[in-house]
Specification:
Peroxisomal Thiolase, Chain A, domain 1, two-stranded antiparallel sheet, alpha+beta, EC 2.3.1.9, single chain
């Protein structure tokens, strides 16, 4: 029976808005990880059957099927096709799920999955045109939801209210994300997954730029709450606007042996779930339940969880509903500290998860992330014996 395994996973550092990666075209960011992926594995890119690439704002520099453009920019043979996927923030996690399904079904043997987003160069929301409220949604959608055009920040406020999460709880979680990420960075936990990026200006970006130390509850508590006048969501307890790219090599165990590759993890189970698109960010809860049920595993079997920190209420509400131990969730920090380059985040998180599982000998890891439209992907990975 065919399976799907990940043999390598790499990512760029996550750059802050206007930071070290802001001068790099998204196709070139993508090409950087694609080139290093084959360098580290010794894989001949000519054997890659397809490139599945996540990208959310597919406009301007990120249009024209950036998955295909990235492969060509990397110098890969013209025979290697590519396609671009938009499942909002989960686009590149979905790319891995599609890659796994494709190799298991026998439609391909080797697929590279990943994604990119340069939010400095292609601002979030650019693809919505002139930004008129509800314009991408259409009148029938808006009629169904009472004329409400969903907003993620408002959704985060709704989650905080529904689960009774205070501003202090959210800010404490945010500080913890930075503390965990800073420790991971200092300990070299990210070193094996990172790919240095050479910029057109001649600089080399080697480390994640969003991690901050020395924050206090008082400082975070003074920040404005832009989505609600008396709200709890601020820039301090929300994910950062970022630039970055990540890529994973997906194949079967049999093909990996033939190519001399060493599988690291097996893609055990993948699902996607939908929920209320107005509150928008709650689907990781149902997706987690769905993936556990489909996998046949229990919560206690999972050694580490990655729950995207789009806003602090998302993982906090998820933890309350699912019951996972706090120390097992985002142990190396999350998007509040590391950043959230939309189309790359699923692959960035999975790259971090794969390397963490390998470093700690964790048998099962679970990843989930909320997505625009009230959806969420969930994936369980299984560490393989080396």
């Amino acid at each position: 029976m065919r399976d799907a395994v990940i043999c390598a996973a790499v990512r760029t550092p996550v750059g802050k808005r206007g930071g070290g990666l802001s001068g790099v075209h998204a196709a070139d960011l993508s090409a950087t990880v694609l080139r290093v992926l084959v360098e580290r594995t010794g894989l001949d890119p000519a054997v890659v059957d397809d490139v599945f690439w996540g990208c959310v704002s597919q406009v301007g520099e990120q249009t024209s099927n950036i998955g295909r453009v990235a492969a060509l920019a990397a110098g890969w043979p013209e025979t290697v096709p590519g396609t671009t996927i938009d499942r909002q923030c989960g686009s590149s996690q979905q790319a891995v799920a599609f890659a796994a399904a494709t190799v298991i079904s026998g439609q391909a043997d080797v697929v590279v999955a990943g994604g990119v987003e340069s939010m400095s160069r292609v601002p979030m929301g650019s693809s919505a045109g002139d930004g008129s409220a509800g314009r991408p949604l259409g009148p029938q959608y808006l009629a169904r939801y009472g004329g409400v055009a969903p907003n993620q920040g408002v959704g985060a406020e709704m989650i905080a209210a529904r689960w009774g999460l205070s501003r202090a709880e959210l800010d404490e979680f945010a500080l913890g994300s930075h503390e965990r990420a800073a420790k991971a960075q200092a300990d070299g936990a990210f070193d094996t997954q990172l790919v240095p990026v050479h910029t057109p200006e001649g600089a080399v970006v080697t480390a994640d730029e969003g991690i901050r130390t020395g924050g206090t509850l008082e400082a975070l508590g003074a920040l404005k709450t832009p989505f609600q006048a008396d709200g709890v969501i601020s820039a301090g307890n929300a994910s950062q606007i970022s630039d970055g790219s990540a890529a994973l090599l997906v194949t079967t165990s049999e093909r990996a042996r033939e190519l001399g590759l060493t599988p690291v993890v097996r893609v055990h189970t993948t699902v996607v779930a939908g929920d209320d698109p107005v509150i928008m960010l709650t689907a990781p809860i149902s997706a987690t339940r769905k993936v556990l049920d489909r996998s046949g595993l229990a919560l206690a079997d999972i050694g580490v969880f990655e729950v995207n920190e789009a806003f602090a209420p998302v993982p906090l509400a998820w933890r309350r509903e699912i019951g996972a131990a706090a120390e097992a969730v985002n142990p190396l920090g999350g998007a509040i500290a590391l950043g959230h380059p939309l189309g790359a985040s699923g692959a960035r998180i999975m790259t971090t998860l794969v390397h963490h599982m390998q470093a700690t000998g964790t048998r099962y890891g679970l990843q989930t992330m909320c997505e625009g439209g009230g959806m969420a992907n969930a994936t369980i990975l299984e560490l393989l014996d080396r």
